[in-house]
Design goal:
With about 220 residues, the protein is α+β, with helices and mostly antiparallel strands. It has 2 domains: about 1-45, no CATH class; about 45-225, 3-Layer(aba) Sandwich (Aminopeptidase), CATH 3.40.630. Helix content is about 25%, strand content about 30%. The chain has 7 helices and 10 strands. The chain has helices spanning about 5-15, 60-70, 70-75, 85-95, 150-165, 180-190, 220-225, and strands spanning about 40, 45, 45-50, 50-55, 105-115, 120-130, 135-140, 170-175, 195-205, 205-215. An 8-stranded mixed β-sheet has the order 3-4-5-6-7-8-10-9, sandwiched between helices. The chain has a two-stranded antiparallel sheet with strand order 1-2. β7 (about 135-140), α5 (about 150-165) and β8 form a beta-alpha-beta unit. α2 crosses α4 (about 85-95). The radius of gyration is 18 Å and the shape is globular. The chain starts with 5 loop residues before the first helix and ends with a helix. Mean pLDDT is about 85; it is low at about 1-40. Bound molecules: coenzyme A (COA).
């Protein structure tokens, strides 16, 4: 898999004249409507759905990203807390691998944006599990104003498709706090099966939490059509 650091990628994109052809199929390119696309290892971002564009998180997203990460109702389920600052976001963005998918053991943050306004609605975190071949973990977080509109389901299905087809994943997993009903509904709706329930597995934010594990195989995903 091609993996460039941020400055290498920016310099390749900056050198590109509008309308020129992709750089050996590695990076660059323009869509029919003139929007600049990124080709990395033959994969094109953004991933599009009817309402959404999904693109590696970048500096444009930072402010909105921080705003919802400071929301207590969101942070309670996640590894960050409401003190999450703009410096945390810029650090995370700068450390993003510039690639189509994370490298073994790594994470990759995708911005879920409104396709028409480019407003950031939330994020999808993709984790490549280094101890298991061709296996990814996915977690979706939306700003509270974007929840309950089917946005998470729409993004989840598109990203699963990306992982199983372009990424050639064999298996994709998701984990959640057993009390997080919204996530359970989301992942079951995308075809994942519950495979585990581990009681008081982690001591997290001052309490023991029970974790549920979900997964879907490539064959199962393709059978769903
Ligand atoms: C998890 C999350 C992304 C789901 O987003 P969402 O906006 O509810 O997703 P959707 O609108 O696509 O709904 C997905 C399904 O969950 C259901 N659902 C959503 N919230 C629910 C709730 N509180 N109780 C029951 N069902 C719920 C929806 O009705 C829908 O089910 P359906 O397809 O059967 O109609 C969102 O709740 C969130 O960002 N939570 C905070 C962060 C978090 O916990 N992330 C998970 C990290 S693993």
């Amino acid at each position: 898999m091609l993996c460039l650091n941020r400055s290498e990628w920016c310099s390749l994109v900056d050198q590109r004249a509008p309308g020129s052809s992709p750089l050996n199929g590695q990076v660059g390119g323009d869509s029919a409507d003139g929007q600049v696309l990124m080709y990395v290892s033959g994969v094109t971002y953004p991933l599009l759905t009817a309402r959404l564009e999904i693109f590696p998180l970048d500096d444009r997203d930072a402010e909105a990203f921080v705003r919802y990460r400071q929301d207590e109702d969101i942070a309670r389920w996640q590894g960050w807390d409401p003190t999450y600052a703009i410096s945390d976001a810029t650090e995370l963005i700068a450390a993003q691998p510039v690639a189509d998918l994370p490298v073994d053991g790594g994470w990759f943050q995708l911005a879920i944006r409104d396709r028409h306004t480019a407003t950031l609605l939330g994020e999808a975190a993709i984790h490549c599990l280094d101890e298991l071949a061709d296996t990814y973990e996915i977690g979706i977080t939306l700003a509270s104003t974007s929840q309950h509109r089917g946005v998470a389901s729409e993004a989840d299905k598109r990203i699963l498709n990306h992982l199983f087809t372009t990424g050639n994943a064999h298996r994709v997993t998701a984990n959640c706090d057993a009390r997080n009903i919204a996530v359970a509904r989301l992942v079951v709706g995308a075809g994942m099966r519950q495979e585990s329930r581990q009681f008081d597995l982690e001591f997290f934010k001052g309490e023991w939490i029970t974790l549920e594990g979900y997964a879907i195989l490539k064959s199962e995903h393709l059978d769903r059509g």
